[in-house]
Amino acid sequence: MERKYLAYFSIIGISILFILRLFYLQVIDTSYRNSPLNNSAVAIKYDYPKRGYIYDRNGVLLVANQPSYDIMVIPQDVRELDTIEFCDLLKITKDDFVKRYKRARNYSPRIPSVFLTQLSKENYAFLQEKMYKYKGFYIQKRLLRQYPVKSAPNVLGYLGEVNENDLKKNKYYQLGEIFGVNGIEKQYEELLRGVKGVKFIQKNRFNKEIGPYKDGKYDTVPIIGKDLTLTIDSKLQQYGEQLMVNKRGGIVAIEPSSGEILSLVSMPTYDPNMMVGRKRTVNSTLLFGDTINRPMFDRGLLAQYPPGSPFKIINALIGLQEEVITPETHFYCYGGYKYGRASNNFMGCHCGVYGSPIRLDRGIYKSCNAYFANVYRRTIEKYGKASKGTDVWNKHVESFGLGNFLGTDLPTGKKGLVPDSKMYDRYYPGGGWRAPTIISNSIGQGEVLTTPIQLANMTAAIANRGHFYTPHILKKIDNKPIEIEAYTKPKHTTIDPEHFEPIVEGMFNVFEKGTAQGSRVKGISIGGKTGTAENFASFNGKRFQFKDHSVFVAFAPVNDPKIAIAVFVENGYWGSRWAGPIATLMIEKYLKGETNRAWLEKRMLEGSLQDEYDAQLAVEKAAREEYRKEQELLKEQQLAQKGE
Amino acid sequence: MRKRENNIFVGIDWVLILLYLTLVFLGWISIYAATVSPSDTKILDFSTLYGKHIQKIGFGLVLAIIAISIDSKFYERFSGVIYIITLIALVGLFLFGANINGATSWYRIGGFTLQPSEFAKVGAALALANFLSEPNRDLSTLKSQLNAFAILLIPAVLITLQPDAGSALIYASLIFVMYREGLPAYYIVIGLSAIILFVVTLALGLKITILAVFGLIALFFLYLIKNNNFAIKREWPKLIAFYLCVGLFIFSVDYIYNNVFEKRHQDRFNILLGKTADTQGIGYNTDQSMITIGSGGLTGKGFLEGDRTQGKFVPEQHTDYIFSTVGEEWGFLGTTAVILLFTAFILRILTLAERQKSRFSRIFGYAAAIIFFFHFMINVGMVIGLLPTIGIPLPFFSYGGSSLWGFTLLVFIFIRLDADKTYEW
Prior knowledge:
The structure holds two protein chains of two kinds. Chain A has 22 helices and 21 strands. Chain A is α+β, with helices and mostly antiparallel strands. In chain A, strand 19 (527-539) and strand 20 form a beta hairpin. In chain A, helix 9 packs antiparallel against helix 20. In chain B, 69% of the residues lie in helices and 3% in strands. The longest helix of chain B has 33 residues, at 323-355. Chain B starts with 13 loop residues before the first helix and ends in a 6-residue tail after the last helix. Classes of the chains: A alpha+beta, B mainly alpha. The A-B interface holds A 3-4, 6-8, 10-12, 14-15, 17-19, 21-23, 25-27, 29-33, 35-38, 40-42, 202-205, 210-215 and B 38, 176, 179-180, 188, 279, 284, 287-288, 290-291, 293-298, 307-308, 310-315, 327, 331-332, 335-336, 339-340, 342-343, 346-347, 350, 354, 366, 369-370, 373, 376-377, 380-381, 384-386.
């Protein structure tokens, strides 16, 4: 009776085989997920809400949306069509048509792909009536940004497509979606974008949609993006940009009583509309590829310059607070300050007050290097060891928001640099650094680095006589003023308020009898300070000095400050030559709405520093070329040695 | 002889009935999942496929009760008549049949369609049982062999002409019944060897197969000669003949494949043998089915949660590919449970069949078990990508009245025969 066992064995054997196969298919093998057929039975469709608008502090519309129309194609649905007519409608050539169609087809015959992007509104209206003729083609609407005011691209930022890297960082997005890459668009992305709605749609095997999945049980409704009002004054911003034409640098203006950023100019700049639409790719390459002018580099936030003379004010305040000087303390200047025994241990000065006593007030308005070198040295040496003095000084300086991130609501920033004893211990490992070693800090040269926004904030703190509000750029969300403690709570400096009055007096006199007399504005009391920041660059161990940067800080009116401003003009030389006039023109424009100094305004608007930049570039190029040649020579020598 | 009581349920094998009902119930659940759409609200909506299937199950149960109410002697005596009637029904298709999906396999009666090939299986099983159970039947004689083959060949040919080659394959499987009843083993050995050689030839191509197989045969004979089991001097004509037969078979397979097979048949084998990867055309069904099953994972997505089932990704999912629904919604646990249920069901029939005293009952039971087994093996094998695409239903799971009723008759006639096993008549 052994024959009956064949059936038993077969049945049990097949069952075991099937179970093993199913175990493989269902538990072990996960490759089905990668199968081209597994484009999921449920399609997820997103309903993108309107992105929020952006206004300036006076309600001027800065960023809006414009509809844009893409022609989409599903190749498998395409029927025979009159290609010539269709190409005519789309204004493309027949070759172009074939190329685009092939690309879509290669991507997928079933899945829609973009055939032609960003039609104009007029084209769309015309096409829409005719689209029924062309099966498989349809028009899809998208929203693009539009900038009615061609200004402040560095503040507003721009939108970009989400790429693979971004996906890893944020699960909200899908590949190819649009999101804020820079500026406000990035910083307040979540407010502006709203929340996209999700629709689940059941598909069949032909990838055709056959209705909502589970009756739309899991679908969500989109939440519209919020409109933002910025603290920026668009008129002032544009005026600043005009003044800076053909110059490089940054302007930052802050309202001292609130920390609101009134303008944030970076030059060179570009038309924000360049980063939108059909030409975006070309323009983007152009803008980012410009390594000489660097229009995408926000100089207001990112450029770190030595602050120059405006930093003397801080040193004076620290001297008063540390009680190493009083406003009446006087020093002498003999064309500079000798800080060591060696003949070259001498810091020159251009204040022109030779041999007569210089008190604080005059020290400021004449910007006397010798005066502040004395003050600084006293501060550093107050505690005996230079390291202790330096750290005390460092703490005071940092209380003005220097040497660290300010905590603004802008997505980029730089720390700047305020040295402390640790840093100098690293610089001079054997120790032995003393006040004279670091004397350049007294006049804002040395190691200190600041960004224009830090300087503007520092000026605001002086204008407020000892405190500041964290600079910020968001004013209202959906027309409701924001209430964020970080922006409404004052940050106090370590300097007592009473020490500010003599300083402010000195700053006022800068215009009356000091270095910025030429920039005086009738009817507005301004406190300011000129600066000339040395401009060094190192190539291959060689140090080059280029034309100094022109720096100016100011606030006005002196007794009820409405605006604090910092201006940096690269290679602008004296602070009074470019930065001073620009700063005061900005103040005048902001406080009066107009300017009365037509000749000065004209000089600023038309003045160009392009020659200076070209000169610097030529030197840099030559230095690089020299370096390259040296390297080649070195290589040859090495090769020759090996040959021997 | 004891007069049988009016109670038809005496001696009934309830285990088998329970297994039957479980399979039918799970089958309906699967059809429901595969065909329900979100707008359906009522289960007893007879305009839907799952609603219609309930009617068919109802009618099947009526058939079942009729089948176990009829005296077991009737089946033995009238097996020939039943067989002839099913053959007439098959022939009648050529005159009155309705063409659905390219095959003339159905009668259209009112709103219903009836597929006689599903009933012909019952007829063939009865006729084969009747023929083989005759006293002194000796399957080692050529005459008996030819007669038995004829019983299977006639309906198989008729069905192949419809054309429905898949169903015809089932009749070939009944050779195993004949083997059980004394058909010499070399039929099975030659048959299986031919199938293996067939597949190998298609997979490796003509030249390699010839070389490999001839080499293997040579090694085999060398082994025999070395052990003095084969005298080459005397028996070389046998060796030559063997070589010729194998060679001829391989050549004919190649020839048939390239010249007789239609493109679609070739495609089916090519895809299975991995010679062409095709996820759009003919291989699409099986690929979709395997992805659907794979996506179920260990525990499945849950009842009615199978998005690929809901999206109708697998073509013919409520008929031939119904098993993929189980795979997606109930996962590996569900598919294993169904496979174990089928195994238990078939083994139960087989065990009961072996217990029969009456040869007729035993052979019929055996035939029923083999028929179920081959349907199960071919259908599931196809759905999980182990066998080429052969369109035959999964018993009790695939949507369709005729197959359900045919399978029901097969089970319940056997249950009747089994219930009467203690009676001598």
